[in-house]
Structure formats: C-alpha cells, structure tokens
Amino acid sequence: MGLNFAVMYFVTRKFINNSLASFLSAFFYAFNTASVAHYFDGHLQLSLRFFLPILFWLLVKYFQKPSFKGLFLLSLVFLANSLTNIYFMVYGAVMAICVFVLFLYKNKKKWRPFVFACTKYWWVALPALFIFLWYYLPYYHFFKHENVTRDLNDNIAYSARLFSFVNPNQFSLVYNFVRIGFFDSEYQLWLQLFPIILLLTGVYYVLVNAKSFLWLVVLGFFWLSFCFGPFYITLSDKLTNIPLPYWWLYHFFLPAQSLRVPARSIFLALVPLSLLVGYGWLCWQNFFKKDKAVFFILILVFLVLENRVLYPFFFRRSVYQTAKQLHSQGKISFLKNKPVIHYPIYQYDAGKSYLLKYLSWAEVTEEKIFNGYSGYFPRQWLKLSEQLAKNPKKEDFVSLTNLGYQYAVVHHNLLDKTKRQSLRMFFSKNKKVAFFAKENISVYRLTWPKK
Predict the structure, then answer these.
(1) Which of 115, 170, 271, 301 has its Cβ near the most Cβ atoms within 10 Å?
(2) Do residues 234 and 368 share a domain?
(3) Helices (H), 210-310
(4) Same-domain pairing of 303 and 322
C-alpha cells in the first residue's frame, strides 16, 4: 500500500503541481474501503496496483506527444502491470484503448497523422510483446482447452449493487454500526465521506476552472460503471435485461471473459477518481487560504479515522494449531509434497471460511492438498468432490489414486457422529486401517490399485 501511495503521489504531481493535493489523492488511492476489505479477505494480489497510475500517466503523455522513448517506457510498464495479475492486465488494456480513443476523438480532424505518429515506432514494443505472449499464451491455451469462460451468471453474482457504494467495512472504527448489504469484500465500495466530498468538488473544479481535464471525469465515471456488471440490478436486487457498459466489454473484448468480478473495476476507476480528489483540494483551499494547513490536518485526521479497522490482521484456526503440534513431534512430516485429501470435504456453497479450513494445515505440512478454495473449480473436481463428500465409494477413491493422491486425513472432531461412523465403516470395509491416529486425527494410506 505504501508503494501505491508513493506512485499515485508522483503521478498526481505530474497533473497537479500541488503537494497537499497530491498527498490527499495518493492517500485516497492507497487507502480506501475496497482496498482494505480485499486486504483482509486475503486478496493480496489486488494490492499490486502501483503500475496502473504510472501506466495512465505514460499513456496520456505518449498520446499527447508520441516518441520513441515514450513508447519504450509505456511498453515496459504495460508489461510489468500485466505480470501482476489477470485483472490488472485486462484493466491496463482497457485503459490503453480508452485513452487512445479519447485522444483520437480530440484529434478527429487530423486523425491520420495522429495514428501514424502513434504507430511510427511500433517495433519498440516488440520485446515487451514477446514476453507478454510467452507469459500469457499458456493461460490462453488452458482457457480454450478447459473452456474456462466466465459466463454472465458468474459476472452477475459479483456485480456491484447500488448499496455497495454506501456499504462500509463492517470492522471500521467509524462505520461499524452500519449494516448495509453483503459483508463480502467484493461489495464494499464505499468511497468514504471526505473523499466523496473532495471528489464531487473536484468534478466541480474541473467543470469550472479546468475544462481541458473534463476527460478525467468522463473516464472516471465510465470505468466506475463497469462495477455494476453486465445488467442493471434494481434496489430490490432484481435482475433486469437492461445492458450496461460491462456487457459490451464482456462480449467485444475477449480477455474480459476471463474475469468474474465486475465490482473490482473500482481499481481501474480509482486512478482518475483519485486525481479528481486532488482537484477537489484545489477548490477547497481557495476557501481556507489562511487556515489551509489546519483544514488539511483536519481532513487527514478524518481520513485516518475512516480507514481505521478493528479486525485483527492475523489469526490461526484450530486445525493449524493441531498441525503445528503434530509436526513439531515429527508425526506428520511424511506428508510433505504428498497429494492429500482431508475429511470432512466441504462443498462450494459452504462458504470460503469452510473451504479454506485446511489451507493452514497445508502451510505446516507443505502437502499438495485436494481441498481448498479457488476462483475456478474444474467441473471434474466439483463432481468428484461431491461424490467423495456425500457417499464415498471405492470407485471414487480409485479415481483419486489414479490422480496421484496417496493419503486421506480424517478430522474426527469436525464430523458429526453419523458421518464419523460412516467413514470408519467405509475404510474398514475396504481393509484400510489408520496407520496414524492422534488428537482426533486419523491418516489412511490410499493403496487402491491404479488403473
């Protein structure tokens, strides 16, 4: 987050020659409800947003005055941003297309010379393009082979609702009494009170005093509209057939079909919106010329309070404590690098807290775990997981061993009495004896013959 702050501060200074405005802009970009909520949810890859602001600045700078050096730097930053994660790769591409279209419109009377100037040094970007293709072509082949296309239903499920923008972090020091909508990080898009005030006054300032930067307002709110997903959803959470801008993005920009959370488009929109927060400070400082420093400190105090959360940064599950104890005694060290399945098996609809239950165990043993949570579950995994969870049969375990799985760890204290007895009968019937049993844990070796 510190790097996000530093980069946004640098970029804002390029647009607004004001240190206090740049500080507030950077603070808003680095610390906001969406960023903090995803941090607590374990989405650390979404904190790697430091390339987006500098990519935005380089795009604007390049299309204003195309040059060899400009395209070289632009291609490097685009590549670096693309290597952070798939979402930011798509957002970087969308950003480049939108900024190009914007400047193409501004040069509509001389569009041919403009396009020629922009593409004159195209070969400079080839090294970055080759690395980009080397990195992403395997992903694309997997995407085609496994038919990993996020359908519209996936996108609708994780589309922002109107309440998302008034839905604060439930662990916030200031807003913990507010209970609106879902408590999932994907739906916490509250921009906070003082940044909203600065943002709106920034829009006013641009409309009145800096009309040449009106495109910042257009881009900011256009990209913000992507958060609402492919279709309009009413206040009563009813889906309509009214298409929104994200619908067109999904259908006409292939990489967007690899995404399933339109609400994360907030991270794309935050770049121009943060700049508008900076312009908002320019508007307010005119009203507090003599007490500008006091007013700035007051805003900063409120920003810190609004971003203060009471949720602990670190906690461990009982499963982890058990694994740590057994591993320190050398009881389960043999599981290292071994494919392992854990019981009980939780299904996708059980929620992330259950699906993630055994990952802290695997952190200790360094095993290859069958259970877990992912943004993408192959259909075969879902089918086998459901069969093994509800009514395990010998054939299912044969399929499991054919995939290379060697051990089954049963957590008896997490099973109800019926399921516990059922599993014991199953393993006993198939002549499987737990060669290790300790602390409500039994480990079975899966030795069915491979097909």
Answers:
(1) 271
(2) no
(3) 214-225, 245-252, 266-285, 292-307
(4) no
Q: Give dist(CA 26, CA 81) in Å, integer.
A: 18
* Separation between Cα atoms, residue 391 and residue 446, nearest integer Å: 17
d(CA 369, CA 400): 12
So what's the pLDDT on residue 311?
64
Has residue 451 been placed in a domain? Answer: no
43 falls within a domain:
yes
CA atoms of 294 and 40, how far apart (whole Å): 32
In this structure, the number of other CB atoms found within 10 A of the CB of residue 36 comes to 23
Angle 239-242-243 from CA coordinates, rounded to 5° = 110
Q: How many domains does the chain have?
A: 2
- What angle separates helix 86-106 from helix 51-64, to the nearest 10 degrees? 20
pLDDT digits over 346-385, tens only?
Answer: 876 656 667 778 888 888 999 999 888 777 777 788 888 8
Task: Give me the residue label for tokens 């609402």.
Answer: 228
Q: Rounded to an integer, what distance in angstroms lies between the CA atom of residue 282 and that of residue 201? A: 9
Burial grade of 356 (CB within 10 A; 0-12, 13-18, 19 or more): middle
Enter the pTM of the model: 0.83
Look at strands 407-411 and 441-445 and give their pairing.
antiparallel
Identify the domain containing residue 173 by its residue range.
2-307
Same domain, 6 and 40: yes
